[in-house]
UniProtKB/TrEMBL annotation:
Keyword field contains Signal: yes
Organism: Delitschia confertaspora ATCC 74209
Polar residues: bias regions: 597-618
GO biological process: polysaccharide catabolic process
Lineage of origin: Eukaryota, Fungi, Dikarya, Ascomycota, Pezizomycotina
Active site: 207, 210
Name used for this protein in its record: Glucoamylase
Signal sequence interval, chain numbering: 1-23
EC number(s) recorded for this UniProt protein: 3.2.1.3
Amino acid sequence: MLFKNLLLQTSIVLSSLSEQGHAIPTLEKRATLDQFITSENTVALNGVLANIGPSGSKSQGAASGVVLASPSKSNPDYYYTWTRDAGLVIKALVEQFSVSKATNLQTVIQNYISANAKLQTISNPSGSLSNGAGLGEPKFNADFSAFTGAWGRPQRDGPALRATAMIAYGNWLLANGNTAAATSIVWPIVKNDLNYVAQYWNQTGFDLWEEVQGSSFFTIAASHRALVEGSAFAKKVGQSCSVCDAQASNVLCFLQKFWNGQYIDSNINVNEGRTGKDANSIISSIHVFDPAAGCDDATFQPCSPRMLANHKQVTDSFRSVYSVNSGIASSSGVAIGRYSEDVYYTGNPWYLTTLAAAEQLYDALYQFNKAGSITITDVSLAFWKAIYSSAATGTYASSSTTFKSLTSAVKTYADSYVAIVQKYTPSSGALAEQFEKSGGQPTSAADLTWSYAAFLTMTNARNNVVPPSWGAASANKVPSTCSSGGATGTYAAATNTNWASPSTPSTPTPCSAGSSIAVTFNVLAKTVYGENIYVSGSTSELGSWDPTKAVLLSASQYTNSKPLWSGSVKLSTGASVSYKYIRKSSSGAVTWESDPNRSLTVSSDCSASAPTVNDTWR
Ligand code: NOJ
Ligand code: NOJ
């Protein structure tokens, strides 16, 4: 009887098992997929909470609000908090909390936010808060002290992900009448992270897998989302984020460069010797999923033709590299790793990437149903043909039988990825980081917090429990030419973390009329002996574009590895200034930087710290 039930209800699991010629599954594996998801979801929520200090059952000794990557202290040692993992985990918890309203979750979220107000101020090998650079540090010790060992740093996705997690809770506070906490506790922390993103998005850094120094699709996609929702959140708390507004479309423009016509090349501006097919892109798509957006290619929505094509290219790249995948039909899901060339722990499938492959498809289903149609284009046709062989280009309304066949094929296909996770999850439900490519045994870090969070978000997507919109549908206009941009951020320690009675927000102190403020110009420019670098610009203090009146910068901090020219100029508060650097040779010949002019707006908030621009000679 049990077996008959199983046949009816778990055809996916069974067919993939029998295709692989594996032995009869053990009893606990005979739960249907639905039963597995229900019970595993509880394990996953407990698994996340166990790893968060100070009272998580597996995080004794971690500071309040620390989200450990894993309790594992050796092979590998993951007893640290990564800004990326923590941001994604808290984003998932806010999603849970919005549904369950469980007060224990709210406490965890608030502890995380309070802890990060402090964490932002900790100087570390990436730098400090004064010019924002320290916000790009990838990980900290479990007591929140800086980790000073060698590491792939900076990782610029962290501030964007932290901002998104906090904005999610901030929006919940606003919607539930707690404007004071959103304004005086959440906003000052978010503001630093948004300024970081606006200032540094165009500089290279390490990818989410901490290996490749270049431009990572995930980082840029997360940056775009953070700037767009950050600007909207600022307005809701009575502030503004002008650097967000100035940079968001530049970031979106750059994001398009990762699409190579067939798939996302996940790492660019680097020659890493890989195909670029990487779960990076699938995780990006679920991160930028917006339930109010259409199947938009420009913002890489889960249902977009580009991201469906990419889903097939990335998932197919794992079919032949793991023996757990051998013999599985191309219409069925497989175990997914980070990227096929991976050698970390010999290169295995990961739970969180396999779950992400499912989640993208559940998100896409939500979007198809909401749109009321599916359009198959030349770009997405191969994806569709693999799961529905008679698929053809065209638009299919939800009333058509083709729409029903297509959506049912996507659902079955998505479920088949979760069935892979079910198959390789031990009966305890514990989710490690990886499972072995040949035998499927859990390996690398045990109880990976991110694995559990990935299970929670997959489950919600499968149940059509979707997060609020972040504004993708009105932030998808790609400028015709990309500007490299990079605004100058202002940073200040966030000091208010009293959730019981958040004080009224501090208002900016307007500068008095006619005042000026010293702006520091830093530019990296290689020079030969006898050459000097000047800053020239549109205002009288910068010589009104007359090169003979430009301001000479100092080379006192110049080194071969960091060719820094620097100087301060007093500029009128509130002024909009255009500028460029010029180079003068020993004979007096002047070379201007290439176009366009650079620009900055001098703050008119005299309580903020003095601004600095960090540029590189063009
Ligand atoms: C540790 C990082 O966390 C991991 O992503 C990377 O693959 C290994 N170091 C090897 O560089
Ligand atoms: C290695 C992963 O590659 C990276 O993405 C993650 O942040 C750390 N492990 C911690 O989980």
